[in-house]
């Protein structure tokens, strides 16, 4: 045997000694090997995010600029996705639509899942009457189909980006509350919590410093799996006229515009925004599935 | 069994009560005055203070909130469900007129989703991880990502350009049994679109539950005694595997009612979903308040019904 049995194995020291970027790269490669399909769609999701960030640079025209020489033209070399009734370039509007869509989806899921998770943490850890009342309220919130609750809230608050984010976020709260609560219920029986308590840690301290870090994996899984739903709800709200109001381009309100334009909407105004929604949702759904499988295979089906 | 049903309905009653409070709060306490919602911000500035006051009183919005809430509940009990601000018809009448179409769409879509989903699940479960299974998985994942209302728009466009066909826009108030041809033409499109998303969930769920059941001892026994494979699956494994699928289908039915709002808009179907779309665009808070409540109650009732059906089929549940 080697002279120094105390030292970590070569493999371990190599891993720990590597700089952070290398370790992240290793993690990514692991992810790619575990689920190549998810990794591919993860890349697509990244591309869509990049498209949203770089929207003003890569879109050929400003999204609100009307080209009066070509109104409602089918796709041709100058306007690859055609133009709408008032001559705005569909390609530019689809690219800019990704911005709104992603901002709303990320913000809503982040807000809703975070609030829900903190609520679930409090419910699970504190228990008692607070938990019973909270569970009832969560049940009431879950008695609405997502879209209807979001519609009602968005209508009551009046249309706008912040409104839509709040409306979608509220529909995400129950999921966070339920899942994190059940995770916390099992965590709080563990001996490390007992140890912390015997050292005299306060409830607040145990919740924030001992239990909360353990909830990160389920939290990430929840957040990524709900991105796709959030995008669909945002598009539906836009389509129903309670989303982000025109002229700001969103995929949902572009489809609504196409339908309002006349009895027979031009095919290019219908096709492209919908393809954008489908690819984005597909990418985020599959990426989320991959994240879930890698982070915690036991949660398969639970979230 | 009876005590289970009673218990389930008692809990359902509490939930409906909570739901009514949430709906009321959303519609009243949210920032902004209900009149702004009705007249729009520009219309509001044109109203004088006295006019505002009289409108508020006329609509019953000047009363204390608790009185408004009780009046609303009274209204629901009477079956009126409030009045639209823009139309003569009460919401109750509107639901009676438009509701059946949406209900037919929902039910037909559930039937279609089983027809589409279950065979796919059987094929996938009998040959897991083969090309057929993978194809089924890819298709179902795609179906979950496609927004139904967009698919609806594509179908309408495709039929129009390809065949010059457009579904009738109204059945003239005729029911499914009086004028099946027209009504079917109206409901088949939305029902199909809504069925695809459900079929994807059902295929996934039925596949995993079949895979579990097929490994059970009693299925092996059935095979061992020489029963042919097809009979083992269809008579022994499938009935047990379908239990979770029934639960799922019931829950999905509730989501279909919500999903039918944009889908009915896309097809121009004159159902309740379209009424909801109109109400939300006109910011007709009384119609919205009642329709949202109605949808939530139907959703709760569906969940209770599914629980009872499952308990009736599977005695293990009702004794828990």
Structural features, described:
The complex is a heterodimer of chains A (303) and B (320). Helix content of chain A is 72%, strand content 0%. Chain A has 303 residues and is an all-alpha fold. In chain A, α3 (36-53) packs across α13 (267-295), α5 packs across α11 and α9 (191-198) runs antiparallel to α10 (203-211). Chain A starts with 9 loop residues before the first helix and ends in an 8-residue tail after the last helix. With 320 residues, chain B is mostly helical. Chain B is built from 13 helices and no strands. Chain B has helices spanning 2-28, 34-46, 49-58, 65-78, 91-126, 131-145, 148-163, 180-214, 217-224, 229-267, 272-282, 285-313, 315-318. In chain B, α5 (91-126) packs antiparallel against α10 (229-267). Chain B is globular and about 85 Å long. The interface between A and B is large, with 45 and 51 residues.
In short:
The complex is a heterodimer of chains A (303) and B (320). Chain A has 303 residues and is an all-alpha fold.
